[in-house]
Amino acid sequence: MVVRAFGLLYLLALAFTGISATGWFDFAPAPLAGVFLVVIGLPWTLAAAWFPDPLQPLVAAVAPLPTLILLWTWCHWPRRRA
């Protein structure tokens, strides 16, 4: 349930960032459109500074994926029963 909730939150933040940044559906382009995406991608978002400027938005958009992968691995790891 946690993995699904985080995955849904990630998809919603990614969609909101795309819609707000481009001005779709008559929204005015927002300069702070990616704030939610940056927050749920921490601490991986901080690694975006290591990449060249044109790649930084892509790295920031993909940053929540390692957290999602870690959550999925943690929740689906086979446990030994004593």
Say what oligomer this is: single chain
How is the biggest beta sheet arranged? none
- How much helical structure, as a percent, in the residues? 55-70%
Shape from CA axes?
Answer: flat
N-end to C-end Cα span? 25 Å
Mean pLDDT across every amino acid position: 83
Q: Unreliable runs, pLDDT <50, ≥5 residues? A: none
Beta-strand portion reads under 5%
Computed structural class: mainly alpha
**Count of domain modules:** 1
Number of helices: 4
Per DSSP E runs of 2 or more residues, the count of β-strands stands at 0
CA radius of gyration is: 15 Å
Q: Order of helices and strands, N to C?
A: HHHH
Question: What does this molecule look like?
Answer:
The chain has 82 residues and is an all-alpha fold. The chain has one domain. Helix content is 57%, strand content 0%. The protein is built from 4 helices and no strands. Helix 1 packs antiparallel against helix 4. The radius of gyration is 15 Å and the shape is flat. The two termini are 25 Å apart. The mean pLDDT is 83. Keywords: Membrane, Transmembrane, Transmembrane helix.
Summary, kept brief:
The chain crosses the membrane at residues 31-51, 58-74. The protein has helices spanning 2-22, 35-40, 56-62, 64-76.
Topology:
Blueprint: H1 2-22, H2 35-40, H3 56-62, H4 64-76
Helix pairs in contact: 1-4
Transmembrane segments: 31-51, 58-74
Keywords: Membrane, Transmembrane, Transmembrane helix
Highlighted features:
single chain, 82 residues, mainly alpha, transmembrane, membrane
